[in-house]
Amino acid sequence: MNVIEAISARHSYRGKFKDTPVPREDLVKIMEAGLSAPSGCNKQTTSLIAVDDKAILAKLHAVIDPPVGETAPCAICVLTQRINAYRDKCFAVQDYSAAIENMLLAITALGYRSCWYEGHITDDDKICDKMAEILNVPEGYELVCFLPVGKGVEEPAAPKKKAFAERAWFNGFGGK
């Protein structure tokens, strides 16, 4: 699958996962794709933790309420550091967003499914802090995203997208 095909095939998957393990070699490829993403002023503010140990996954799932991705055989947790880069600007959100998108495309290209869970774990209830404690994340890092990874039981339905002409133009807004 080339990158354009992966972009078209990638959809958020919120269904059940098969119990098929994800080989560590595939997890490494996925994480390398994430760490290859651009980073503002090359500050490399994004770090990753893959979790494939069933006991640790169970502890993570126990604090995620309501539950998500609980049948996935593994997950990747995305960490960020809020480091100023240029003129006191921090690009951590852009950095980890680019890393997550790269990983979602790699996940798709390798035949797996996932979903970007961020707001669900970073809301006022701060599930992310409980997850970070389970994973021994040191101070100075924030856990900002949870990506369950595995083979989907079913094919995800493609969301309806607005027509290209409603969202993209040439030479100015609304241009032809």
What's the CATH topology name? NADH Oxidase
Count of domains: 1
**H/I helix tally:** 7
Principal-axes geometry comes out as globular
Distance between the termini: 32 Å
Number of strands: 5
The average pLDDT value, as a whole number, equals 95
**Helicity, as a percent range:** 25-40%
What is the CATH top level name? Alpha Beta
Largest sheet geometry: 3 strands, antiparallel
Question: What is the radius of gyration computed over CA atoms, rounded to a whole number of angstroms?
Answer: 17 Å
How much strand content do the residues show? Answer: 5-15%
Q: Please tell me the CATH architecture by its name.
A: 3-Layer(aba) Sandwich
Uncertain segments are none
**What is the H-and-E element order?**
HHEHEEEHHHEH
Within CATH, the superfamily carries the name NADH Oxidase
In which order are the strands of the major sheet placed?
A: 1-2-5
Helix/strand structural class? alpha+beta
